Backbone:
């Protein structure tokens, strides 16, 4: 039994899947909570109409929270926003997750009216689990850049947190199905889908393409309802069974897409659950897939990024690029180690190389400065989020100016006081 327990929960496996999941947890939390801050006076301040959730909190806790002055509420808003952004980018991911979760519990106790209690319950349970370890900061995070580990993407960690998250979503399906056959509006004896096609409650059912087709066919509606219950009951078994796991993940994706297209459900069902299904993919396979791509690019003619090896700021930047270069598509070249940088590309001189970084593509295309940085953003998964920023209207003017200032003063970024006049190694 001890060996089985260790194999299921404590066995070390790569944590890259959990790092990827952290991003979607942060996005889901943001989509749920941040919009409620737009009208604080209607949602959380003393002027708000509040619905309290005594099923989740004790009367003593709710009474204490309701006594909060408006200044304290505003302070919690700022605390949540800062910790949420820190968690999103993976800076001190565990601490930021704990602070964000605590602030989330505060707003849930302050008013449960504007965000559905089911969404809060599921979200806060997920956040509570994420608070247990810092493993979700191993990659796709600022924490991974601070760690200076080029192979952080395959760092091995105890698997228990990922297993708990798997159990959470699997049994969410299961208990949802049990509620459908035991609660009000029993799906086995009634026909709730047919009812929704004819008498939908406000804000529940969307007008979708098949609605007119389903409306006159009660037996078809009943059959679809039974099929949904059966699928939800079987999902835990399908997900944990190796031969059916991939099919169950695809089925879960289809289920949630149909859910978001037909019903006005909270964002959590679309932004959190599908990525959580991906946690069932064996992380060893993910790392093997990444390793195959790295080996392929190492054998190929890679793009070359030319930098100043005597600039510590440039060295640090290249170190971070190597960590973010998940598929090893870039080859870094220190032009200071070359007799003539022109051997890399006819347009490259020592003066140009000193002025900014350059990117040389396998087909001979040549980019420098901000344009090179733009191209790099397309190559590194951790920089994908910057693509809309670097291509935002006006960045073609602002970006090069900002880049040139940093490039001209890069030696000032040295910790060494000798570099205070921007003349190191020249």
Residues:
């Amino acid at each position: 039994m001890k060996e089985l327990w260790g194999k299921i929960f404590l066995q070390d496996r790569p944590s890259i899947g959990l790092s990827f999941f952290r991003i979607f947890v942060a996005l889901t939390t943001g989509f749920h909570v941040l919009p409620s801050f737009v009208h604080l006076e209607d949602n959380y301040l003393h002027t708000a109409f509040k619905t309290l959730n005594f099923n989740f909190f004790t009367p003593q806790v709710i009474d204490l929270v309701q006594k909060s002055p408006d200044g304290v509420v505003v302070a919690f808003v700022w605390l949540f926003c800062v910790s949420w952004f820190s968690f999103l980018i993976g800076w001190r991911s565990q601490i930021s997750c704990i602070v964000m979760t605590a602030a989330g519990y505060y707003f849930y106790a302050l008013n449960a009216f504007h965000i559905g209690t089911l969404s809060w319950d599921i979200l806060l349970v997920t956040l509570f689990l994420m608070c247990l370890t810092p493993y979700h900061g191993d990659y796709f995070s600022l924490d991974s850049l601070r760690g200076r580990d080029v192979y952080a993407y395959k760092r091995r960690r105890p698997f228990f947190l990922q297993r708990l998250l798997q159990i959470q979503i699997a049994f969410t399906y299961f208990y949802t199905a049990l509620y459908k056959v035991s609660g009000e509006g029993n799906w086995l004896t009634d026909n709730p889908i047919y009812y929704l096609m004819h008498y939908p409650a406000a804000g529940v059912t969307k007008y979708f393409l098949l609605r007119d087709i389903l409306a006159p066919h009660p037996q078809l509606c009943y059959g679809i309802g039974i099929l949904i219950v059966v699928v939800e009951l079987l999902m835990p078994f399908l997900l944990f069974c190796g031969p059916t796991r991939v099919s169950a993940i695809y089925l879960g994706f289809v289920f949630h897409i149909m859910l978001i297209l037909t019903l006005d459900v909270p964002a959590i069902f679309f932004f959190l659950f599908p990525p959580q299904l991906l946690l069932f993919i064996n992380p060893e396979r993910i790392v093997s897939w990444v390793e195959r791509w790295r080996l392929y690019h190492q054998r190929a003619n890679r793009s070359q990024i030319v930098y100043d090896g005597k600039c510590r700021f440039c060295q640090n930047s290249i170190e971070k690029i190597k960590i973010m270069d998940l598929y090893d598509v870039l080859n870094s070249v220190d032009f200071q180690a070359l007799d003539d940088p022109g051997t890399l590309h006819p347009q490259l001189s020592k003066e140009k190389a000193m002025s900014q970084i350059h990117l040389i593509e396998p087909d001979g295309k040549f980019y420098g400065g901000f344009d090179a940085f733009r191209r790099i953003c397309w190559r590194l998964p951790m920089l994908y989020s910057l693509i809309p920023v670097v291509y935002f209207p006006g960045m073609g003017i602002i970006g090069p100016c900002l880049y040139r200032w940093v490039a001209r003063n890069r030696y000032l970024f040295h910790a060494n006081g000798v570099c205070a006049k921007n003349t190191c190694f020249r």
Summary: The chain has a mean pLDDT of 86. The longest strand covers residues 303-307. The CA atoms of residues 250 and 277 lie 9 Å apart.
